[in-house]
Every structure is written in structure tokens, then in C-alpha cells.
Fold:
Amino acid sequence: MAANKTIRWLEILRLLESEENKWWSTSEIHESLQNQLSRQGVQFEIRTIQRDMVEIRKSGLVELTKKSGDEPGCRWRLNDSEFNVDRKRFSNPDLALIVLLASRHLTPLLPIEVQQRLNELAERSETHFKSRALPAHWVRPWQNKVRIMQRGHALLQPKLEPQVIGEIYQALDRHKKLSLSYFKPGRTAQTDVYQPLGLVYKPPLFYLVVLREGNPRPHNLAVHRITKAEVLTEDSVASPGFDLDQYLEQGGMEKIHGENVKLVVRVTHKLSDHWESAHIGRNQTIEKSKDANIITADVEDSDSLRRYLLGLGSQIRVLSPDSISNWIANEARSLADTYPKLNNS
Structure:
């Protein structure tokens, strides 16, 4: 993951700068980072560090010298560098840009200690860009030219209790169980003991994937509905078969009506042109005609797919499967009942 790589690179640079002119073996770097990051749940093999060192050297962010050693891998030394994580300013614009964009888009996914460190570096990178003399008033730095936007209407993030967030991140970091008070809309909060398995950011909401004591199936808690949180001393030991990516792929964050269905949709030419570039599903085919096009694709019948199709309104007509077309028809009838036609009088 990009977040883990960012963490490793920052720690590698700090380690190399900790002792001037020292030659560090790959195994020494690996051992030091493992000791530092294992408590944050970041695990990696020595081959990962070997690749990191090669990539850092090629990136030009710092000047590294390497030499062959008796052990597997190489020995590394940081030469006089333009970049120093403890200086007030960045002299290297590439690294300043990387840190600035990482702080904007990766911060919610990092452990709190790393968030604080990254934010400090981001402030220094801002200082770096402000200190640079621009050749003309119309020249804008790269970070002012790129943005990530949500699809659809962007909801405002609900209020999150700092104490709750702190306890959740601490439990994930230290692999500890949590006592959480959680409420569902219209109900009073209930307190239970949970094993935290992962944190998912689905802007603008955070979801904590958990196992509740006595329940073998993982489920999700909306973090903004957690009123109290306390880290417990007991270790959180997740099943060795649990994988967060697999959990998400199997619909852990939403309701799945049917894992794989063949969707057949009659669409406008304009929408067909859009889907011709960004396919709606796997094995997509388009049958073109004068009035409208027929698109066929293999999709997962999920809530998000159904609501996406419903939102397209009259641009589409679902021909198959019946489960989706009937659902859209029922929703349309409910909408018609909700918004009856006004009398002409």
C-alpha cells in the first residue's frame, strides 16, 4: 500500500540521517524499521527494504552511496543531502511535493503518531513552496493543479469525538480489544467488547470493521455513532483467515443481492459513449443502433449498483435481470406516489 511505503521511506531517511557517514547494511535497516513499525502493524520482508533502497536512490530525493558487502544485499550511506527531516525547510521540491500530497490524501489512514509527523513535514513543505520565487504571477505550483473529487453529491463529514478516534487508532496500533458504546439510529447506545480488524474510510465516513465478543462474523460500526471508547489490556487476536481486502471485495461494506449477474441495459448514446470508456462491468459488449444502444456486462448485484442505475433515470432501461429491473420499477412507483402530479387548477 502507498501508505505503508510512505511510512517506510520516512523512517529510512530518519535512520540514515541519525548517524553521519555511517554505512548501514540492508539487514540493519530492516531490523531497525521492524522494531519501530511492528507495533503499528506494518510488516515487511528484507526484500521490501532492498527494493525501497533502490527506489529511493533512483528517485533523486537524496544522494545515496551503496557498496557490496559480505551479507546479502548492500551497504548504504547517505551523502550530504539537500533533504533533512529535522531542518526547517525542504531544499528538494520533489520530496516536498510528495509529503504535501501524502498529508492531504493519506493522513486519515495512518497511525496517529505518523499523522503528526507527516503533518509537521507538510507544514515545512508549504514553507518551502512559499519561499520559492515564481517566474511569473500566473505560474502555479503542482499541488494547486491536481485534486481528487468524490463522485456524486459530497456529504459533509459528521462530528467525530477526538477521544473515540484516539482510542480506536491506539487499539489498532497496539492490537488491543476495545470497549465501545455504539448506537443505531433511534436506539440507545449499547456497550460491548470488540476486536478491531480494520479501519475503512469511505468519504466522508469512517467505518471500523470489528468482531463482537461471541459473534464469529465481522461487521462494521460507523465511527460517528460511537459515543465512548476504551482500549482494553487484552490482546485482539483476529482469525488468521481474515483479510481486509478480501472482506471488502466480498461486499463487507454493503449489501450484496447477487454476486454475479449479467446486466443488460438499453441506454442513450451519450451514456453509451461514457460507458464505452469507463466500463460498467466485466466482459462488456455494446450493440449499437440508431435509437439507443444495448450494453451487456457481468456485474455484482449490490446496493450501490442498483442506486447508481436508479440515479440515471430515463437515460437507461434495465432489460435483465428481473431482480434489478423489478427493484427499479418498485422504486419508481414509490417516487410517483411521493410526488403526485399537481392539479392543473
User: Anything to note?
Assistant: The first strand starts at residue 24 and ends at 25. Residues 85-89 have pLDDT under 50 and may be disordered. The CA atoms of residues 42 and 297 lie 38 Å apart.
